[in-house]
User: What shape does this take?
Amino acid sequence: MKKKSSKPVLSLSTALFKGSFVHNPVLTQIIGICPIVGAATTAANGLSLAVGVVAVLVLTEAVTSLLLKKVPRWLRMAAYTLLSLSVVLTCDRFIFSLTPDGGAGLGIYFYLLCVNALAVIRCEKFACKTTVLNAVTDGVAAGIGYGAVALIVGAVRELITYGTLFSAADAVPRFPQGALPFAALVIAGFLAAGHKWLLIKFYPDDIRDTFSMNAVYEKPVKKDPGLFADKRKPKVLRDYDEKIRPRHSAEEKEKGGEAK
Assistant: This one.
């Protein structure tokens, strides 16, 4: 039996585009939204979260692919958190310097990145089963996708709240409600709706793999019949459709005729 290659089927640029946009972890899987809702209140805070997530994902996935493939799963789960924590504690001062308030607006939400479900899922479902190059590419793509949402949400909230962009430190709030978590959820909801519309219109063949961990490296199947097509149904469901459902339909028709 021919061994399946672990190299990307798609080009690097296409893989990055699919991983960051088509399979955006926030807009399609709602992963890691807590730091965005809690801390992305300004454009600077959103940028800081973006840089932090890219660093955490790239380094954690690279180390996972390089060193943790043969480690038992129950140990790997703890290792992901320790790796993410090491990255966060190493680069926190640099990332805090990107914000005018020295990271005060990020608070504890920045450190929540070390226990972010996004890192654990990407490492366990993908990085520990592929090459280092694929793992790094996946980390960059997922990090860019997550960071783009954090930056957009932060920028919109800053515009609503202060009427500024990257200069909210000295501004007076005009609409304080824009800084509330509810505003972030509303903005993210509109982004998700717009993202879904774009996928349906321009990338219909990729929608079926939205939740796939390794779909970045797979070419979409053209004219896919869908999950509920007869050929893809389990045998139990096919038997139900072919035998049980017609009998029920006939019995219902007979009862309907008797009632009349």
